C-alpha cells in the first residue's frame, strides 16, 4: 500500500474528471472527503478516493476505503510525497462554544492550583464534535465573557471524568470531550463588549444560552473573538515581541499565568502563510482566510518555561500540533521530522524564521527520556 506513482495519480484524476465526482466515488465505493482534498489546477478532488484508485495502475487493483486511512498516515502522505497539493477542508475545523458556570465548576481554583482543564461536558452535537475542532470557553454570569480558547484533542467519552474535584456539586452523568486550552484570556473579554459585534450576538451562545452544550459557532464568530483577543493583547503594552529574547512575563495577578503574546505566533504564521511546517497542509476557511496554529517547541507553561519567541514557535496544522505536543512527532538537530520513531521528511523552513536547535533538543529530550 502507498506504492503509487505520480502518473497513476494523474490517471485517477483524469478518470475523476471524465466520470464526474459522484460517479467516480460510486464506482470505487468511496464517500465524499471530509478532511482533505487534493487541489490540482484550481480543482478539488476527494484525496482518499484518488489515492485509492491510483493503486489499480501500480498494484493491479484499486484499494477499498476500509483498507487505508485518508489522513496523514496514508493518503495525504502518499500524495504530498508525490508533490501533490493536499489541503484540509474547513468543514472539519468546526468551532464550538463551551460554557463554564463558575457557580457549578470552580475554574478559578483549578487555575490557582496550576491544573490544566482537561475536558468539558457536552450534551448535543455528539456525533459531530471531533478532534482538531476549535473551542471558545465562555464564562457565564456576572463578569462573563470569553475566558479561553483552544482545541478538542480526542473523542467523546462518558467515563473517566477529569477535573473531578472542581465540580461544586456532582454533575449528572454526561459525556465529556477531551480538550487543551491554547490560551487563557486574562482578563476575560467581557460579554458586553463582544455582543456589540453581530458575529457574536447572533450566535446561540447569546440567543439561546439554555440550549445545551456545545453551541455551534461559525468561522466568523471565531474570527471576531480572535480579533478581540488580539486587540486586548495589543493594549497590554507589549511591543515587537518577535525580537524579545527573554522569557514571557509573569503577570502579578492572583492567577499566575504565562503572558502569551499572540504577536509572536502571528508573525510565524505569516512567514509560512499558514502552511503546516510538518505536513504542508493549509486549511482554508469559508471566506478565503486560512487557519493554522502556533506551536511552541519547548513548552511555554510550567514546569518547562520555554520562551515565547519566534525561534521557539512552529506554524502547524491542528493534527500535527497535537502530535508534536504529545511527542508523537519530534525533530532531530537537522530538523528531520521523526514520526513514531521513523524519519518521514524535513521540516519546512523559511529564511526569515530561524529555529533555535536548543529548543528542538529540549522538546525531543522531553519525550525520549
Ligand atoms: Zn500538519
What would you say this structure looks like, in words?
The chain is an alpha+beta fold. It folds into 3 domains: 6-88, no CATH class; 92-235, ph1033 like fold (Roll); 261-368, no CATH class. It contains 12 helices and 16 strands. It has a 6-stranded mixed beta sheet with strand order 5-8-7-6-4-9. It is globular. Mean pLDDT is 83; it is low at 236-260. The protein binds zinc ion. Residues 276, 278-279, 281, 316-317, 319-320 line the site of zinc ion.
What does the secondary structure layout of this molecule look like, with pairings?
Blueprint: H1 6-19, H2 21-28, E1 36-40, E2 43-46, H3 47-54, H4 75-81, E3 85-88, E4 95-100, H5 107-112, E5 119-122, E6 134-139, E7 145-152, E8 175-190, H6 191-194, H7 198-201, H8 204-207, E9 215-217, H9 219-234, H10 262-271, E10 283-284, E11 290-291, E12 293-296, E13 313-316, H11 318-325, E14 329-331, E15 336-339, E16 342-346, H12 357-368
Parallel strand pairs: 4-6
Antiparallel strand pairs: 1-2, 1-3, 4-9, 5-8, 6-7, 7-8, 10-11, 12-13, 14-15, 15-16
Bound molecules: zinc ion (ZN).
Gist of the model:
The chain has 369 residues and is α+β, with helices and mostly antiparallel strands.
Helix content: 25-40%
Order the strands across the largest sheet as they lie in space.
5-8-7-6-4-9
Q: Largest sheet, described in full? A: 6 strands, mixed
Count of the separate structural domains: 3
Which structural category do the helix and sheet elements fall into? alpha+beta
CATH class of the largest domain: Alpha Beta
The end-to-end span amounts to 33 Å
Which fold name is given in CATH as the topology of the largest domain? ph1033 like fold
Percent in strands = 15-25%
CATH architecture of the largest domain: Roll
Radius of gyration: 22 Å
Give me the strand/helix succession. Answer: HHEEHHEEHEEEEHHHEHHEEEEHEEEH
CATH superfamily of the largest domain: ph1033 like domains
Q: What bound compounds does this protein have?
A: zinc ion
- Average the pLDDT over all residues and give the rounded result: 83
| Parts with pLDDT < 50 across at least 5 consecutive residues | 236-260
Amino acid at each position: 500500500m502507498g506504492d503509487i506513482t505520480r502518473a497513476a495519480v494523474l490517471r485517477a484524476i483524469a478518470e475523476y474528471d471524465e466520470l464526474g465526482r459522484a460517479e467516480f466515488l460510486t464506482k470505487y465505493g468511496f464517500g465524499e472527503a471530509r478532511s482533505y482534498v487534493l487541489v490540482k489546477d484550481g480543482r478539488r478532488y476527494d484525496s482518499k478516493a484518488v489515492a485509492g484508485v491510483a493503486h489499480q495502475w501500480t498494484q493491479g487493483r484499486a484499494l477499498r476505503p476500509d483498507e487505508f486511512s485518508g489522513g496523514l498516515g496514508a493518503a495525504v502522505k502518499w500524495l504530498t510525497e508525490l508533490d501533490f497539493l493536499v489541503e484540509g477542508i474547513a468543514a472539519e475545523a468546526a468551532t464550538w462554544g463551551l460554557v463554564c458556570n463558575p457557580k457549578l465548576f470552580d475554574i478559578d481554583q483549578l487555575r490557582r492550583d496550576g491544573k490544566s482543564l482537561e475536558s468539558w461536558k457536552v450534551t448535543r452535537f455528539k456525533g459531530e464534535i471531533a478532534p482538531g475542532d476549535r473551542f471558545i470557553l465562555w464564562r457565564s454570569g456576572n463578569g462573563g465573557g470569553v475566558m479561553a480558547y483552544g482545541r478538542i484533542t480526542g473523542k467523546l467519552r462518558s467515563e473517566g471524568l477529569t477535573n473531578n474535584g472542581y465540580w461544586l456539586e456532582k454533575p449528572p452523568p454526561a459525556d465529556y470531550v477531551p480538550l487543551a486550552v491554547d490560551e487563557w484570556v486574562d482578563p476575560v473579554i467581557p460579554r458586553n463588549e463582544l455582543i456589540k459585534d453581530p458575529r457574536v450576538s447572533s450566535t446561540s451562545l447569546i440567543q439561546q444560552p439554555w440550549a445545551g452544550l456545545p453551541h455551534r459557532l461559525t468561522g466568523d464568530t471565531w474570527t471576531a473573538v480572535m480579533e478581540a483577543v488580539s486587540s486586548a493583547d495589543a493594549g497590554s503594552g507589549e511591543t515587537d515581541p518577535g525580537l524579545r529574547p527573554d522569557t514571557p512575563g509573569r503577570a502579578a495577578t492572583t492567577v499566575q499565568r504565562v503572558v502569551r503574546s499572540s504577536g509572536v505566533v502571528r508573525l510565524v504564521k505569516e512567514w509560512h502563510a499558514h502552511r503546516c511546517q510538518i505536513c504542508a497542509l493549509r486549511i482554508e476557511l469559508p471566506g478565503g482566510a486560512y487557519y493554522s496554529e502556533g506551536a511552541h517547541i519547548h513548552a511555554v507553561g510550567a514546569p518547562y518555561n520555554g520562551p515565547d519567541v519566534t525561534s521557539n514557535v512552529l506554524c502547524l496544522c491542528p493534527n500535527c500540533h497535537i502530535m508534536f505536543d504529545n511527542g508523537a512527532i519530534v525533530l532531530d538537530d537537522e530538523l528531520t521530522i521523526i514520526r513514531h520513531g521513523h524519519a518521514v521528511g524535513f521540516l519546512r523552513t523559511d529564511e526569515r524564521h530561524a529555529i533555535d536547535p536548543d529548543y528542538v533538543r529540549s522538546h525531543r529530550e522531553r519525550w525520549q527520556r
